[in-house]
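Interim report to the steering committee. The following record documents the input for DUF4287 domain-containing protein (69 residues).
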Amino acid sequence: MTEPVKGPASYFPSIEKKYDQPIEHWKELIRASPLSRHGELVTWLKTEHGLGHGHANALVAHTLAEVEG
């Protein structure tokens, strides 16, 4: 039996369904952005790409954790 997905990745299925883009699309945008601070990236995704706060926050948190880890 598989463990349920927890943390930011738990948002990924709904993000892909709502915005019709794979998660890797959003992660590439975040990595390519000249912005680096979590809050700035969340605001950017919300204003420039129309994501909701929870979805933007989950994508940024997960992507930055990968970069830092």
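The chain has one domain: 9-68. The committee is asked to note this result when reviewing the revised timeline.
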